[in-house]
Amino acid sequence: MAAKPQLLIVEGDPIFRRVLPFLAGQNGFQAELVDSVQAALEKIHADLDRLILDLTMPDGLSIPVLQRIRDECWPIKVAVVTDDTERQILEEVTALRPDLFVFKSAGLRPLIQWLEAGKVAAPSPTGDTTVPADSAAEPVADPVATAVVDRPVAEPPSAARSNQRSKDRGKVRMGLVARLIGKAAEFEVRVDAVDISSSGIGVLARQAFNPGQYFVVRMHFGQKPAHLVLCRTSYCRTAPEKKFRIGAAFVETIVAPDRDTLPPAWYQKATTKPG
User: Fold this and answer.
1) How far apart are CA 25 and CA 20, in angstroms?
2) Which of 4, 38, 157, 166 could form an SS bridge with 162, CB 3.0 to 4.6 Å?
3) Which range marks the domain in which residue 159 is found?
């Protein structure tokens, strides 16, 4: 019988401290829980299989724990969980290449998938055991963070066009300015669009977007006039070169004679909590 994979949970939030060990046990891990950076540095060792690391702990940032793993070249898979959005901190974490980066406000689904990918499979009749491939590289959008398209942005593609679009996905590279709106101060972030469909967009940015965060981009669709497109962030994960990969659903679009004028209803959507 295969030994249970070892997991260290470094978590300061009382709710997550109750939930994460349960999820770990459900996925076949032998889990140990610590509540400080100092305790994590004492418990970390090369034989661990996985680590769940809360970025902001009661005794400070947990970045030194991830730094030690990288310095020692230990093959431990690390998931960083946080709700911290300070750019400098997020860039420092990204540079240390965690295997998964999850905002707590996005829900537990990406983390559950990551744990499921690391569990030891049940023995086959021949005695073989297989560890599934790690499938958490592309988190699935949390249902709460998936918006409904109120008005179509483009005509539904035909089957032939859809097949061609599938071949071309990921080849798009277009510079855009994302205008973030919400309760906080409104500001703009330059992004690179790398994946566009009739229902959503994937972008690369040097700043993390919170799941559920609304933003507006100015886009052209063929020969049509420029449009302002309201988007809602579905997920945000780390990417190479100190960037973040952000997936968002199209919510609504309007013709854009003046890029500085947004419908009041868009601000209402961005500042209203989902029911």
Assistant:
1) 9
2) 157
3) 143-271
Verify that 149 and 267 share a domain, yes or no: yes
Residues 13 and 98 in one domain: yes
pLDDT in tens, 85-116: 777 888 888 888 888 888 887 678 888 888 98
Which residue has 């798009």 as its token pair?
172
Q: Is residue 123 part of a domain?
A: no
Residues 150 and 85 in one domain: no
The pTM for the full model equals 0.48
pLDDT tens profile 149-181: 222 333 333 333 334 444 444 344 577 888 888
Highest mean predicted confidence (pLDDT) among 123-127, 183-187, 242-246:
242-246
What are the structure tokens assigned to 179, written together?
A: 């205008």
Q: Please check whether residues 155 and 250 belong to one and the same domain.
A: yes
CB–CB of 6/29 below 8 Å?
yes
User: What number of CA atoms fall less than 13 Å from residue 88's CA on the CB side?
Assistant: 1
Q: How many helices (H) and strands (E) does the chain have?
A: 7, 13
* Neighbour tally for 144: CB within 10 Å: 13
